[in-house]
Amino acid sequence: xxxxxxxxxxxxxxxxxxxxxxxxxxxxxxxxxxxxxxxxxxxxxxxxxxxxxxxxxxxxxxxxxxxxxxxxxxxxxxxxxxxxxxxxxxxxxxxxxxxxxxxxxxxxxxxxxxxxxxxxxxxxxxxxxxxxxxxxxxxxxxxxxxxxxxxxxxxxxxxxxxxxxxxxxxxxxxxxxxxxxxxxxxxxxxxxxxxxxxxxxxxxxxxxxxxxxxxxxxxxxxxxxxxxxxxxxxxxxxxxxxxxxxxxxxxxxxxxxxxxxxxxxxxxxxxxxxxxxxxxxxxxxxxxxxxxxxxxxxxxxxxxxxxxxxxxxxxxxxxxxxxxxxxxxxxxxxxxxxxxxxxxxxxxxxxxxxxxxxxxxxxxxxxxxxxxxxxxxxxxxxxxxxxxxxxxxxxxxxxxxxxxxxxxxxxxxxxxxxxxxxxxxxxxxxxxxxxxxxxxxxxxxxxxxxxxxxx
Amino acid sequence: xxxxxxxxxxxxxxxxxxxxxxxxxxxxxxxxxxxxxxxxxxxxxxxxxxxxxxxxxxxxxxxxxxxxxxxxxxxxxxxxxxxxxxxxxxxxxxxxxxxxxxxxxxxxxxxxxxxxxxxxxxxxxxxxxxxxxxxxxxxxxxxxxxxxxxxxxxxxxxxxxxxxxxxxxxxxxxxxxxxxxxxxxxxxxxxxxxxxxxxxxxxxxxxxxxxxxx
Lengths: 455, 214
Known about the structure:
Shape of chain A: flat
Order of helices and strands of chain B: HHEHEHHEHHEHE
Transmembrane segments (chain A): 12-42, 155-173, 179-200
Organism (chain A): Alligator mississippiensis (American alligator)
Strand content of chain A: 5-15%
Largest sheet of chain B: 2 strands, antiparallel
Largest sheet of chain A: 7 strands, mixed
Order of helices and strands of chain A: HHEHHHHHEEHEHEHHEEEHEHEH
Oligomer: heterodimer
Strand order of the largest sheet of chain B: 1-2
Number of helices of chain A: 14
GO molecular function, one term (chain A): glycerol-3-phosphate O-acyltransferase activity
Protein name (chain A): Glycerol-3-phosphate acyltransferase 4
Distance between the termini of chain B: 35 Å
Subcellular location (chain A): Membrane
Distance between the termini of chain A: 106 Å
Number of strands of chain B: 5
Helix content of chain B: 40-55%
Radius of gyration of chain B: 20 Å
Number of strands of chain A: 10
Number of helices of chain B: 8
């Protein structure tokens, strides 16, 4: 028995040492290529293996479902038709506006009002909320994340074991690794840029700054296991231009910045973000605004214009939607960035939801929860398309230009081009209005009619 | 629906006839099966299963439109008892959005078709004219959700609107002239210069957005 004790501690020591060594080796193995911007292709191999496993898992679920003769839940993202959630009044006003040339402040019943109800009726016949949920054909591949599985009862024992193994790998192996990488990346960024900031302005400083930025972003990319495919890299943004992209998550910044050297625009935050922002601006002229300045649109526009007109300054990175969208559509672009008059380089980013859903629903998850979710997914797979540059034509105004850019991005990324404001994400469009539909409509007509008959 | 070979041929045929893509036709077919309970035809009762449709004030007119033989491009008149998938698609094709590659003639034809669909909705006795009574019916239905609105108000609204329509179509009328009703030509005249075709369509989502990125 006495012999066991030293043996135990020996084993424990060995275990500890080997784990540490393994960990450090892994870190080095991942960070070194990031520093030099090369890739061993390990992530892609990982992705292919995962896909095979997912397919197998899906087949098992389908088999299980068939045995029990039940339909399998198929999450159609948004149904099959695009519904525009404008309110009844707005929509009817729009229909009338595109119709008669009469003044709009005398809205009485018009022949065109029937359009709205007719269309709504046909839409519900084509596709309604309730029946959207169930469908009896093939499931899209299940990606072994319980957050995306709605068919729990069809999981066999083998599948559960596999899923459990997946959880183990993700939380106990990948997560600490990723956190370590992220920590390294962020601290290198802060320290590196502060050091570079001490140098006098000149070519040397720029060169070093660029490489420090790129290196740290690449490490962060590996920290998320992001597998990114860049298309049309010859259209990458150049100095003196504005880079415009659709926005799905805060990770977009990391994805774009790891392939190009941009000047960021944004509001100064407190906390860790603030520290990073302040460090980073020492090495490279990013455009940060105080909270009070953000409200002043002219000031913002002025600063951006100044930055853009200096040809030696870096391209600015802007997300004109103003908020994170769920990556199936592109919403209204705010026109501010399009008024500045610089060349716009549109970029379309599309995430593959199979490996992990990158959309940040900021009303549902805080930043930390979101990052944890990202780091415990399998991987983040996305495609980035660099579109050819666009400039504002003399006969279009900022809004039309913004819409043109938006359509180009939506078309390239295969996203739906929607006209409504991303701000609606925070205000719920109530479904209960359907019942009020008729009441509202009749109030609208009769109320105005009474006014008229009174006058 | 038979073996896969004959199905894709049928889908091709339908695609050519109605202008939908084969993917959209597949989606709509699934929807058709859901509505009909896996039967080959749909009857009026099947539309009762759609809860969202209950809230629509002109529900009965919309359902009616599906069975209207004029909309189904059949020679005879009146109402069909049941419709098959091809008829279903025919009705849905009235709500297709405009395509970029349409020329003037096609656009014009498209527009006329959509307006005809609407005209048939108003003209419930199938006599080719929207009379005052039919107009009143539509207004009453649209305003039926509001219990406080009296029939009188609904009537006067309809009368006023009808008079306006008359003034557009016929111009100044003699005091004892009676305006019979809005014919389809008058209907078209009222909508001249107004592009309703951009409002009367249902957009399909591009299902290929769940694309493979690798």
